[in-house]
Automatic annotation (TrEMBL):
One GO location term (cellular component): cytoplasm
GO MF annotation list: ATP binding; glutaminase activity; phosphoribosylformylglycinamidine synthase activity
Pathway: Purine metabolism; IMP biosynthesis via de novo pathway; 5-amino-1-(5-phospho-D-ribosyl)imidazole from N(2)-formyl-N(1)-(5-phospho-D-ribosyl)glycinamide: step 1/2
Subunit structure: Part of the FGAM synthase complex composed of 1 PurL, 1 PurQ and 2 PurS subunits.
Taxonomic source organism: Qipengyuania oceanensis
Catalytic residue list: 89 (nucleophile), 197, 199
Gene3D superfamilies tied to this protein: 3.40.50.880
Major localisation: cytoplasm
UniProt-listed GO biological process terms: 'de novo' IMP biosynthetic process
Domain of life, per lineage: Bacteria
Cellular compartments annotated: Cytoplasm
InterPro entries with a match to the protein in the record: Class_I_gatase-like (IPR029062), PRibForGlyAmidine_synth_PurQ (IPR010075)
Protein name: Phosphoribosylformylglycinamidine synthase subunit PurQ
Annotated keywords: ATP-binding, Cytoplasm, Glutamine amidotransferase, Hydrolase, Ligase, Nucleotide-binding, Purine biosynthesis
Organism lineage string: Bacteria, Pseudomonadati, Pseudomonadota, Alphaproteobacteria, Sphingomonadales
Length: 225
């Protein structure tokens, strides 16, 4: 089975090419590139990625305007059908604003842009996206964000913790995220939002390749299925 993926580009996306290169390097098949103004996605997609950047310049609220783009109606429908959707950084913000994931991403607690490699703990190694990691494993992935402070009410936090939907957690305080949450899964496990950039950790020339296994595990599972 040939792996078929798509990378969505919004006005202000700046990591869409990085995401496309990562998917092609790992799968051997170039993803289709979809502009946010398109209304439909192919129904035979295996994987959808919402990349990082500053959609619409973050003028209203990070991800809020992108969440209303025409293509997001198709992304939501695909996610509801079970198609895996990965949102990284701004893509994570879009997923929360569109209602595909709970919570919100606020301004970093220290009010500064953070750009460095951080250590993450793999909290859930059973999802499609995390199956190539071991539970409790420490991995190193770059971050680059100004609005990565994950917030949700205590009831929501308790629920996602209890359901095992925290995928990754910062080992040290990075941006003020509640309970140091770095990545969250939806209830069905086919949508992952994360602030760190796995597409920037694909090969050792990047300074590390821990992000590659996220794509390798997901693609292997999907192709096998």
């Amino acid at each position: 089975m040939a792996f078929r993926s798509a990378v969505i580009t919004f006005p202000g996306s700046n990591c869409d090419r990085d995401m496309a290169v990562a998917l092609e390097q790992v799968s051997g098949v170039a993803p289709i590139r979809v502009w946010h103004g398109h209304a439909e996605l192919p129904e035979d997609l295996d994987f959808i990625a919402l990349p990082g950047g500053f959609s619409y310049g973050d003028y209203l609220r990070s991800g809020a305007m992108a969440a209303t783009s025409p293509i997001m109606r198709s992304v939501v429908k695909a996610a509801e059908r079970g198609v895996p959707v990965l949102g990284v950084c701004n893509g994570f913000q879009v997923l929360t604003e569109s209602g595909l994931l709970p919570g919100a991403l606020l301004r970093n607690a220290n009010q500064t842009f953070i750009c460095r490699t951080v250590e993450l703990t793999v909290e859930n190694a059973q999802s499609l996206f995390t199956s190539s990691y071991a539970a409790g494993e420490t991995i190193r992935i770059p971050v680059a964000h100004h609005d990565g402070n994950y917030f949700a009410d205590e009831q929501t936090l308790d629920r996602i913790e209890g359901d095992g939907r925290v995928a990754f957690r910062y080992r040290d305080t990075v941006n003020g995220s509640q309970r140091d949450i770095a990545g969250v899964l939806n209830e069905a496990g086919n949508v992952l939002g994360m602030m760190p950039h796995p597409e920037r950790a694909i090969e050792e020339a990047h300074g590390g390749s821990d992000g590659r296994r996220l794509f390798e595990g997901a693609i292997a599972a999907l192709v096998k299925a």
